[in-house]
């Protein structure tokens, strides 16, 4: 399987990359989704700009009370980051659940998020974390929150010529517990359904809950009805079960040869319950 | 596009089309056919090589992306006629039958021990998720990685 002919540029600076993108080139990062699509000729970009060539775009650092992750940080960079393990363990846990080791060595957080595969793992965690995305064009940059960023299957708030330059996630205190639970498609490793939970307890009551769901519908989303149902509750098994039962409410569930819509909805409830229980058990 | 890469310590320069996959550079330009093309869809792992110390699937990377990189293939493991400990372990533990997946399995297995010298069985299996074997049922491969880990500790 050979891709159609294309031109390739390894840019020397972000400005050079943005200039080329503004004139119609397509960005490539790890290539873990784009290259298979090019080999199948589902994608045939005429000009690729290799963002991995920008060595200063793969940082992971803390600044201003938040965590900043450069677009080309690989899944392995995230999975093995001591800073993230300590301050945002939901992201390291999610990165470790992506694909396989070879994919995690090459694939990048920016590439995965910008590609917005409806079965990708990161979007669930980034919804639960209320992540912010720095989108940069040739002339300006803007910051978009996760709820507005993921628009539809393979569709994000990115405009032509813009790149996702950075992902920003918050640092939670010790009263917060998180977990990512998924049912993986055995061949590809993609999530048939994945649920990221982020809960905070105060004096025995749940004071804050965020649930990000991937794989179930066309885009990763926040299960707002479940979140509301949890707040103020004391996290008994019955409380968790009744909140998890609402996770797919109002969602048009995907159906394919791996899982019917009804089965996916069932999996979402089961995994929401597991993610919530695990997250609560991790509160220090 | 002119690129130069180092494979098993030797430098290779070639004018290539950007669409040339890294595995084709390794097999056809460098003539190192130990790296196998299996599924061609980045699922089976038979094409696994080490790129700057990281296991990657060479069927899912363009050679131009590896410009200047340091690559190790299965041919680069043995030295002076002496097998690498991981190769030795696959031999001793019968970690192969037909052998098609073996070069990729060995490269992925080396990555496991590079990052974690004493992995549990679960960690070994997690580290081999990107490699498919249709003969062994994996048990002997897992045993080989365990044996290599135990041997390396001695």
Count of DSSP strands of chain A: 14
Average pLDDT metric of chain A: 96
**Assembly form of the protein:** heterodimer
- CATH class assignment of the largest domain in chain A: Alpha Beta
Please tell me what the overall shape of chain B is: globular
| CATH-assigned fold name of the largest domain in chain A | Uridine Diphospho-n-acetylenolpyruvylglucosamine Reductase, domain 3
Task: Provide the succession of SSEs of chain A.
Answer: EHEHEEEHHHHHHEEHEEEEEEEHHH
Counting H and I runs of at least 4 residues, what is the number of helices of chain A? Answer: 12
Measured as a percent range, the helix fraction of chain A is 25-40%
Offer a concise description of the structure:
The complex is a heterodimer of chains A (284) and B (154). With 284 residues, chain A is of the alpha+beta class. Helices cover 33% and strands 26% of the residues of chain A.
Topology (SSEs and partners):
The complex is a heterodimer of chains A (284) and B (154).
Chain A: E1 7-9, H1 14-22, E2 26-28, H2 34-39, E3 47-50, E4 60-63, E5 66-70, H3 75-79, H4 82-87, H5 89-96, H6 101-106, H7 109-115, H8 122-128, E6 132-136, E7 141-145, H9 146-149, E8 150-152, E9 155-156, E10 163-170, E11 176-184, E12 191-202, E13 205-214, E14 221-222, H10 224-230, H11 237-244, H12 261-281
Parallel strand pairs in A: 1-3, 2-3
Antiparallel strand pairs in A: 4-5, 5-10, 6-7, 6-10, 8-9, 11-12, 12-13, 13-14
Helix pairs in contact in A: 10-11, 11-12
Chain B: E1 2-7, E2 10-15, H1 22-29, E3 48-51, E4 54-57, E5 70-72, H2 85-92, H3 102-115, H4 121-127, H5 139-152
Parallel strand pairs in B: 1-5
Antiparallel strand pairs in B: 1-2, 3-4, 3-5
Walk me through what this model shows.
The complex is a heterodimer of chains A (284) and B (154). With 284 residues, chain A is of the alpha+beta class. Chain A has 3 domains: 7-52, 2-Layer Sandwich (Uridine Diphospho-n-acetylenolpyruvylglucosamine Reductase, domain 2), CATH 3.30.43; 55-170, 2-Layer Sandwich (Uridine Diphospho-n-acetylenolpyruvylglucosamine Reductase, domain 3), CATH 3.30.465.10; 176-281, CO dehydrogenase flavoprotein, C-terminal domain (Enolase-like, domain 1, 2-Layer Sandwich), CATH 3.30.390. Chain A is built from 12 helices and 14 strands. Chain A has helices at 14-22, 34-39, 75-79, 82-87, 89-96, 101-106, 109-115, 122-128, 146-149, 224-230, 237-244, 261-281; strands spanning 7-9, 26-28, 47-50, 60-63, 66-70, 132-136, 141-145, 150-152, 155-156, 163-170, 176-184, 191-202, 205-214, 221-222. In chain A, the strands form 4 sheets. Chain A has a 5-stranded antiparallel β-sheet with strand order 4-5-10-6-7. In chain A, strands 11-12-13-14 form a 4-stranded antiparallel β-sheet. In chain A, helix 2 links the parallel strand 2 (26-28) and strand 3 (47-50). Chain A starts with 6 loop residues before the first strand and ends with a helix. In chain A, 52% of the residues are buried. Chain B is an alpha+beta fold. Chain B has 2 domains: 2-76, Ubiquitin-like (UB roll); 85-152, [2Fe-2S]-binding domain (DNA polymerase, domain 1). Helices cover 33% and strands 15% of the residues of chain B. Chain B has a 5-stranded mixed β-sheet with strand order 2-1-5-3-4, with helices on both faces. In chain B, helix 3 (102-115) crosses helix 5. The longest helix of chain B is centred in the last third of the chain and has 14 residues, at 102-115. The mean pLDDT of chain B is 96. The interface between A and B is medium-sized, with 31 and 30 residues.
